[in-house]
Amino acid sequence: MENAPPDCPPPGSPGTRGRVLVVDDDPTVAEVVVGYLHRAGYAVEQADDGPAALERFAAHRPDLVVLDLMLPAMDGFEVCRRMREHGPVPVIMLTARGDEEDRILGLETGADDYVTKPFSPRELVLRVGSVLRRARAAAPADGTGPLSGGGLSLDPASRRASRDGHGLALTLREFDLLAFLLRHPGRAFGREELMREVWGWDFGDLSTVTVHIRRLRGKVEDDPARPRLIRTVWGVGYRLDLPPESPGTEARPSAAPAVPPGGGRSR
Fold first, then answer.
1. What is the C-alpha separation between 51 and 55, in angstroms, rounded?
2. Which of 235, 140, 252 is nearest to 185 (CA)?
3. What is the mean pLDDT of residues 4-31?
4. What is the pTM of this model?
């Protein structure tokens, strides 16, 4: 990993691009990450263990969290879960190992991205910017109203979702993915296209899409092992199929009141 901040001038004064909480018990890694983010224009706070991270998170709600997986006292998975209990916040998870199981578990916990150590601090800064841009663009800029189909109801403005009247506890990216599919029912999308359109990335591990599709199925399908809504199109990717009783081929405005994401059932 590089150990010197970039020589280029920062794009703005510290804090102008948002507040980032960096959680890592390795002082060298933390110092480098904090330095790069600070010079890139972010206001940065630091914690070296889980309890300290949760304390700082509660005191000053960050716009994004860079979270190490292996922490003393409380691992990154548990820290992420507890942060998610207070609402959606973008999380980039750091892991010292490239094990797919760890990456998948991190994504399923609610992380929006992950970076494997050793990593390039410049790349991490790019990832932070990408995830933050997507999070801030989560509210629809094109005036799209509530969506519904197949028993699903989504209100992009309030970030609320329900299925058959029961609230769905969706992560930031799960919500974005489901909203995108509801806007384009019946159309098959490849993983590369979904990563570009939903995540806003032109690069990255495509297993990110696979994991989010699997997790989303667990929340919206009656039987996730035999999905009837989010179908796999072999050799292409995924497609949202609305049942015959849903009129038309497009998601229609929802007449049902939105339900808070924390209520109802979640699997």
1. 6
2. 252
3. 72
4. 0.61
